[in-house]
Protein backbone atom coordinates (compact mmCIF):
# COMPACT_ATOMS: atom_id res chain seq x y z
CA UNK A 1 0.00 0.00 0.00
CA UNK A 2 1.35 3.39 -0.92
CA UNK A 3 1.69 6.26 1.49
CA UNK A 4 0.73 9.90 1.21
CA UNK A 5 2.51 12.67 3.06
CA UNK A 6 0.14 14.99 4.98
CA UNK A 7 0.84 18.18 6.87
CA UNK A 8 -1.28 18.99 9.91
CA UNK A 9 -1.32 21.90 12.31
CA UNK A 10 -2.12 21.46 15.99
CA UNK A 11 -2.09 23.71 19.01
CA UNK A 12 0.81 23.54 21.47
CA UNK A 13 -1.49 21.73 23.89
CA UNK A 14 -2.15 18.96 21.34
CA UNK A 15 1.51 18.86 20.37
CA UNK A 16 2.44 18.33 24.02
CA UNK A 17 -0.15 15.57 24.29
CA UNK A 18 1.22 13.76 21.23
CA UNK A 19 4.80 14.06 22.52
CA UNK A 20 3.68 12.70 25.89
CA UNK A 21 2.15 9.61 24.25
CA UNK A 22 5.39 9.01 22.39
CA UNK A 23 7.55 9.58 25.49
CA UNK A 24 5.48 7.00 27.42
CA UNK A 25 6.53 4.46 24.81
CA UNK A 26 3.03 3.88 23.46
CA UNK A 27 4.13 5.07 20.02
CA UNK A 28 7.47 5.46 18.31
CA UNK A 29 6.68 8.66 16.40
CA UNK A 30 3.95 11.19 15.61
CA UNK A 31 2.83 9.45 12.42
CA UNK A 32 2.25 6.20 14.29
CA UNK A 33 0.13 8.04 16.85
CA UNK A 34 -1.98 9.79 14.19
CA UNK A 35 -2.50 6.49 12.31
CA UNK A 36 -3.65 4.93 15.58
CA UNK A 37 -6.21 7.71 16.03
CA UNK A 38 -7.50 7.16 12.50
CA UNK A 39 -7.81 3.38 13.02
CA UNK A 40 -9.66 4.02 16.28
CA UNK A 41 -12.06 6.44 14.56
CA UNK A 42 -12.66 3.97 11.72
CA UNK A 43 -13.51 1.26 14.26
CA UNK A 44 -15.87 3.57 16.17
CA UNK A 45 -17.56 4.67 12.97
CA UNK A 46 -18.03 1.06 11.89
CA UNK A 47 -19.61 0.19 15.25
CA UNK A 48 -21.86 3.25 15.06
CA UNK A 49 -23.07 2.38 11.56
CA UNK A 50 -23.71 -1.22 12.60
CA UNK A 51 -25.75 -0.08 15.61
CA UNK A 52 -27.63 2.49 13.53
CA UNK A 53 -28.51 -0.22 11.00
CA UNK A 54 -29.87 -2.45 13.76
CA UNK A 55 -31.91 0.40 15.23
CA UNK A 56 -33.34 1.24 11.79
CA UNK A 57 -34.22 -2.43 11.26
CA UNK A 58 -35.96 -2.53 14.63
CA UNK A 59 -37.94 0.63 13.90
CA UNK A 60 -38.99 -0.71 10.50
CA UNK A 61 -40.18 -4.00 12.01
CA UNK A 62 -43.09 -2.29 13.72
CA UNK A 63 -44.66 -2.97 17.09
CA UNK A 64 -44.16 -6.27 18.86
CA UNK A 65 -46.91 -8.36 20.40
CA UNK A 66 -44.46 -9.43 23.13
CA UNK A 67 -44.34 -7.80 26.54
CA UNK A 68 -41.31 -5.81 27.66
CA UNK A 69 -40.48 -8.63 30.08
CA UNK A 70 -40.55 -11.24 27.27
CA UNK A 71 -38.30 -9.09 25.10
CA UNK A 72 -35.91 -8.45 28.01
CA UNK A 73 -35.73 -12.18 28.89
CA UNK A 74 -35.03 -13.13 25.26
CA UNK A 75 -32.28 -10.50 25.04
CA UNK A 76 -30.74 -11.64 28.31
CA UNK A 77 -30.79 -15.28 27.15
CA UNK A 78 -29.16 -14.35 23.83
CA UNK A 79 -26.49 -12.32 25.64
CA UNK A 80 -25.69 -15.22 27.98
CA UNK A 81 -25.46 -17.65 25.04
CA UNK A 82 -23.08 -15.30 23.23
CA UNK A 83 -20.93 -14.98 26.36
CA UNK A 84 -20.72 -18.78 26.67
CA UNK A 85 -19.59 -19.05 23.02
CA UNK A 86 -16.94 -16.39 23.53
CA UNK A 87 -15.59 -18.11 26.63
CA UNK A 88 -15.60 -21.61 25.10
What does this structure look like?
- This protein is an all-alpha fold and 88 residues long.
- It is 72% helix and 0% strand.
- The chain contains three helices and no strands.
- The protein has helices spanning 12-23, 30-60, 68-87.
- The mean pLDDT is 95.
- This is Type II toxin-antitoxin system ParD family antitoxin.
- Belongs to the ParD antitoxin family.
- InterPro entries: ParD, ParD_sf, Ribbon_hlx_hlx.
Number of DSSP-assigned strands: 0
Structural class: mainly alpha
Low-confidence stretches: none
Overall spatial form: elongated
| Percentage beta strand | under 5%
Helix content: over 70%
- Kindly, what is the distance between the CA atoms of the first and last residues, rounded to a whole number of angstroms? 37 Å
Radius of gyration: 22 Å
**Could you give a short account of the major beta sheet?**
none
Q: Report mean pLDDT, rounded to a whole number.
A: 95
H-E order: HHH
The number of helical elements comes to: 3
Keywords, separated by commas or semicolons:
88 residues; mainly alpha; 3 helices; 72% helix; elongated
Short account of what is shown:
With 88 residues, the chain is mostly helical. The chain has helices spanning 12-23, 30-60, 68-87.
Amino acid sequence: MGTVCKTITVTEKYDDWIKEQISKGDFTNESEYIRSLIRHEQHNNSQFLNLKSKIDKGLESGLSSKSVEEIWDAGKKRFEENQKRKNA
